[in-house]
């Protein structure tokens, strides 16, 4: 780093030491990593994580998120490549990394250290990649164009155009009204190219139709939008990709998914009971639920899915893992509970 050092940390070289002309810069990459880790340890003692949570709750713009973590990112870039003009990473791809690294409770959570290691590795790779792309300092006049993902995030907050959401609602209602005469469940796939508005369409429908959103993305996919849902520090997708043996596949997966759905229902039921006490009109219930749950990474949404993947049995279903209990019996019991809850919501 040509003798540069972080504002927070002293140089590791003894005072008065002189570098030889041919001495390589940063001969010990591990030292850089230690300084980076120390930087985020100090950040976890600050209020940065609380500021990020507040922005998430307010559904802030990408620019607001970048402004929030810009200072610590510039210090990190100074540590790694000796310059602070590296472009601040877009929130759509890197907000989760800053959130993991600044969360004061993440180290104590299951899988938390692994998530933090992954986050800091991604940030270091980003810095080094950008440093290679921009070998000279940026001029003050430089104004990088927003990425496609940043444009999508901005467009997401603009007024919805068209009536596609009404057409989808009409199709859903028609499907539901005819489902009693058919021996199969209701499924509907929305197929179209990337960036054409599929997710925005469903999000718009959620303003008036009670919906439990779920975004499943693999760990390596940080470019898609919306971001993938998380649960207990891991992508929610991992819950549905658990390997099982051929003999136990049907037995375990059916019961595993049933328990997941039952815990989701219990979480929703708890919220509806509180909402009913507010005295608000029924016409607002879908929109209020959507606002309460928030987008992926929002506290309540994280809480819901972390609770749902917990393998501990739900009250009334302590026998869900008992192979002697027929799955149809468990499913019918779950359907009865759901029907009872729905009747109380009327």
Structure description:
Helix 4 crosses helix 5. A hairpin with a 2-residue loop joins strand 1 (230-231) and strand 2. The protein is an all-alpha fold and 346 residues long. The protein has a two-stranded antiparallel sheet with strand order 1-2. The chain has twelve helices and two strands; from the N terminus they run ααααααααββαααα. It is globular. The relative contact order is 0.08. The longest helix is centred in the last third of the chain and has 29 residues, at 249-277. The N and C termini lie far apart (66 Å).
Write a compact overview of the structure shown:
The protein has 346 residues and is mostly helical. It has twelve helices and two strands; from the N terminus they run ααααααααββαααα.
The helix-and-strand class reads mainly alpha
**Helical content class:** 40-55%
Choose one word for the global shape: globular
Question: Low-confidence runs (pLDDT<50, min 5 residues)?
Answer: 1-30, 137-141
Read across the widest sheet, the strand sequence of neighbours is 1-2
Q: Please give the oligomerization state of what you see.
A: single chain
Number of helices: 12
- Largest sheet descriptor: 2 strands, antiparallel
| Radius of gyration, taken over Cα atoms and rounded to an integer in Å | 25 Å
Mean pLDDT: 78
Q: How far is the first residue's CA from the last residue's CA?
A: 66 Å
> Using DSSP, what is the number of strands?
2
Helix-strand pattern, N to C? Answer: HHHHHHHHEEHHHH
The percent range for strand residues is: under 5%
